[in-house]
Amino acid sequence: MAAKGAHITPNIEVKPSLFEVLAADSLNITIYPAIKRVVDVTTAKPTVFGGLVRYYDEFYLAFNSLVQGYYLKQYGGSLAEVFYGLTRLSVRSKTFTTKDRNWSFVVLVLVPYAIRKLEKACASWKDDYENAKHVSAHRQLLFRLLPYVQACYESVKLIYYVSYLANVTKTHSPSLRALALGLSYLTEEEESWSFKDVLHGKVKVATMMSTALLRWLELSAFFLQFIEWWQTEANIGDLSKLPIPDAPEPDSNAKKYANVCPICLQKQIIPTAVSVSGYVYCYRCIATHLQTDSRCPVTKYPATIKDLIGIYTGDDD
Ligand SMILES: [Zn+2]
């Protein structure tokens, strides 16, 4: 692999433009949602392919391992980087060693998988918490902290883009920087063969298969850009639905009168709510009260007999 970067010396080093490295980055993060969308659409029958949807992360982990593993080994870059004609080289030695390759694999394949799992776990803990289920303190801390950590990382990324543009750094992303790798133009000639070679038995079937697969993958990369747009459209559709507002804060007296009528302090007979305050009384108690005082007895909000609502909980007999 050392030969790959041997022709590049610091004097004639050509740095890929920010546009190219950003394009590679954006293609890389598109692959996951794009394939997810294809899986969602094609697996309309949940009984047959339900497992693929449920274990999509694991399916994608396997797929991504194969693809990125191959591209790192063969071209020294991720699928998206190679697609844009880029390859990874060590900032210092201008080579791409086995160690660089293994760490690249960890950052490209394993870390995103772990982050996705963490995000999903946090989302479900947050959901449980909002539905008043018990969530341990450290999990609460984790799901509260996660958005801030992500915002910080995004800011750091932006700083890296700017410093790459200003020629201050040789790498455009914190993750590549952590690996001490930079992106450079891919120069190695790929294996080429013609059908004549095939007829003369010069090309192995395995080579043909792998080339065909790669062409298919690279074509798919174009297709992915289209699916990304499709995905965005779908998200915009969802955005038009406003988020559910937070549940109202309980009133300080709410606990005191839980399951009892605030007037007679017994279990409510014919439970009746005052709609302006939410407190529940016996129908007789509140109706009698409102004849002399047009206010909710607990909150003192103005109320009349017209503001009473029957509560049908099903356990009032
Ligand atoms: Zn009562």
TrEMBL record:
InterPro entries of this UniProt entry?
A: PEX12, Pex_N, Znf_RING, Znf_RING/FYVE/PHD
Offer an example of a GO molecular function term for this protein.
zinc ion binding
Q: Name one GO cellular component term.
A: peroxisomal membrane
Membrane topology reported for the UniProt record: Multi-pass membrane protein
Question: By its UniProt entry, which Gene3D superfamilies does this protein fall under?
Answer: Zinc/RING finger domain, C3HC4 (zinc finger)
Q: What does this protein do?
A: Component of a retrotranslocation channel required for peroxisome organization by mediating export of the PEX5 receptor from peroxisomes to the cytosol, thereby promoting PEX5 recycling.
Recorded protein name is: Peroxisome assembly protein 12
Q: Which organism is it from?
A: Anopheles epiroticus
